[in-house]
Amino acid sequence: MEVALTFGSLGDIIAICQVAVQLGRAIGIGSGVVGESAKEYQDFREDLDAFVRILMQVVATYQQHEFSPYLDGLDNATKSVINQCGTLIQDTLEHIQPKYHDSLSGRGSGKKINDIYRKIEWSMREKDRLRHVREKLQDGMQRLSLLTTLAARKSARVDNATLCARIEEIRQLVSDNCQSREEMLDLLRVQNTASENQAEKLEDMSQQLVVMASNSMFLRPLDPTKELPVILEDALGNELPIPAQWLDSLEWEVFYGLLVGHFKGRSGYDMVLKREYALEESSSGRDLDTNRPLHFCLRKGMKINMSMVFDAATFIAGACPRCKMVADVPEGVTVQ
């Protein structure tokens, strides 16, 4: 972790301050769960807070002084100490947080045995490690305090009012940054709640769809014509099924086109092109009314008989008016 105390270093110092705050929280979670001494944790937390205050003092001091070889040497020495302390804090946080955070938090990781193991491991292994970290941090703080004091004495432009203003500015920046993180966390919580509500609604909709599908399957046998096509039997005895899905939107011109395509290459094609045929409902024997919309004339499962119409110059008594076949019938009987 490189830190430059020249212009532009403020963001790096703030980053170290935030890492120190995160380490204090992580240690607080672990110590509270496994029953460590409250005073021991409080002392470590105070050391971290003191380190943050010293970093603010360093920035306020070095960003105000005029350049000189003496102060430049102090500057380099201070950089080295900050690098060491920053690396120490970062390494400690990276060691503790991923390994213990979920298991030592109030909610736990959801794996009870793993949480118990982590708590025992924390109390047995991490106590000495944290004590060593604290000792090294205290040593770094002492060196930083000494270097900052020497720099302040040599800097002609530093005064108490300026230092206080700079320290307050840095403190405010750190506070604002932490506040923005808290706001982001609150927003994520709200979004998580909304997502959970949405998931519940989707689950309800899924259950409703299952019920609707079940009811649909139950009622389907009550309609014997459900999804049955209209069957058109042409004059040659061939059947042309018309899907039930087409019935509500089928128009006469489209229907005529279907017949033309059906007869293409077959006997009677020319007559179909001239529409010299009749269409009648099989059950009633009535011709379909071409003056009405086609979907009013059709219904699911019905059968339509198609017969060709031949024009004759003369009327033949006792013959079918369509096919002209002579029928031997008693007198007085009309052939239709």
TrEMBL record:
<dbReference type="InterPro" id="IPR054464">
    <property type="entry name" value="ULD_fung"/>
</dbReference>
<feature type="domain" description="Ubiquitin-like">
    <location>
        <begin position="227"/>
        <end position="310"/>
    </location>
</feature>
<protein>
    <recommendedName>
        <fullName>Ubiquitin-like domain-containing protein</fullName>
    </recommendedName>
</protein>
<dbReference type="Pfam" id="PF22893">
    <property type="entry name" value="ULD_2"/>
</dbReference>
